[in-house]
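From the pipeline queue, job 12 of 40. The input is one protein chain; the requested action is below.

Action: predict structure.
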Amino acid sequence: MSYEVLARRWRPDTWASIVGQPHVTKLLATAIDSDRVAHAFLFTGIRGVGKTTAARVLARALNCRNRKKGAEPCNSCATCEQILSGASVDVIEIDGASNRGIDEVRDIIDSAAYRPAASDYKIYIIDEVHQLTGPAFNALLKILEEPPAHVKFVMATTEWQKVPATILSRCQRYDFRRIATDTIAEHLDHICKSDDIIMPKEALAFIAREADGSMRDAQSLLEQVAAVGGKSVKAAEVAELLGMPDHALVAQMVTAILESRPDRVVETVAALRGFAFDSERFLGEVLELLRHTSVVGAAGEKRLSETVGGVFRETAVKLGKSRSALDLHRIFNSLLATLSDLRRGGQPELVLEMGLLKAACLDSVASVGEVLARLEQAAATAGSGGGGGSAGGVDRGNAGPRVAAPSSGRGSQSHAGAAGRSREAATSGVEEAPMPGDEDARVGASSGGSGPLRSGGGESSTDVPSANDRLAGSDADRWEAFLTAAQRSAGIELYVALSNCEVLSIGDHGLRIHPTLSTFRDKIAQPETAARLQAAVTEFFGADAKLEVLHDKPLEEGPGMTLSAIDAERDAKIREDAANDPLVREAIDRLGGRIEKITRLED
């Protein structure tokens, strides 16, 4: 008697025995039980997930004369036995790869007209249907849409996207999923127990992961391993037979990465070269162990699958709490990028080594929540030690500037005052209430519109402050205040033109400016614009103030003041103050960190 391979011997013959596809088997069984079976089906999915098997079970279930309760075929009546042995003339299996032409389809159409010989239905199972030619698909359309009542079509394919939409619309489509690794491992364990094969669960997990979702591939690998290793096979032997990296070597590499030991990484890579393992495959195993480590760190050992055993489980449990979750995610993402680089080809060993070294050299980081918790703990410790409730003795009441600038405008220093806030409010279209102590700098805070500037609103509004009051402060403050007033009185177009000018001098005498771009130079030179600008200068600086526009700046004139330079200087001052904040310095000292980036809250 000839030997029958595992994949054929363990082929499911009932709906219940089909592994990993409950969403398909339940729907089909329900349709059969309720007598609502479609005339055409399309089964899609990767190889070895049960498409043809389900088609055969469906054929037996429809034609079985002694069908059990529900939709399960009895597999013992004459009809079932003929279908099981492939001798039934009413269930025709066709290979779409070798019978792909229009003539073969015409034969199907001609034979479909005849009633089944010994069954209720004549069923055509067309495997790899996507390989039919275009004319063959066209010939199949009509009978597929309106077949005789005694005919059913079941088509299977691994590439459904190659099937014409006209065919897809005439079928009920069922997608067979990749079978989960744990499900494959459990089924292989059942096979081993039935066939008296002793194999640890870790070895079965190797085979299941190598099968990549295909039960038939997993059964073939199991048979291959059992044939070479005998009735008792160890996990290390399975890994070697399948060409998989030694788990001890993978664990050694992950330990070196998480312990930030680049020297150990180099040693492990050197040892790896001696085994001639595939670089991409080795990195895949490293990522797998990192995943297990992250699961242990985030959810505990109980969340690990039972198929994870041996050195992988030991390493994951040992290292699960060694780094923060944020660290593990960064390392995983870094190695994931290395895997992408490996797949692009070119010097795989060098790419692997440099990627592993990069992961091992990543600095430890902590989440904001962890940092705040440590700061609160430090503050509590300092407070209990008589520090007056402050962190490390720092007086919070006189701590100076904070890390982030205020969100209400550009001016975060006292000398910028309301001028910066007013400009920010004007450009954003939102009026801002003056701050206490900023009465002298309330420029452009009118009640709305573009009329004369007022400092208040409603019926009790007062006149604009005097020129002397408005010109208090630095040249930068005066220029920003004038820009705000000009924007409100003369419009945004003039504001943009002025923003692109150098200020050569500004004061109670008036204003001397130099447009930096020819576009704005021409704009300001227009009589109407010049008149509006002069009116704005007179209103802001006083009746005697004059405007002088230098279209060609003399060589003896030094660099003028620009809005971008003002912003840059102010931004630099804010960042300097933030970096020198006593609380920030103390946090750096306590946590052993450094400033990587300073961001203003309004940005």
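Job complete. DSSP finds 26 helices and eight strands in the chain.
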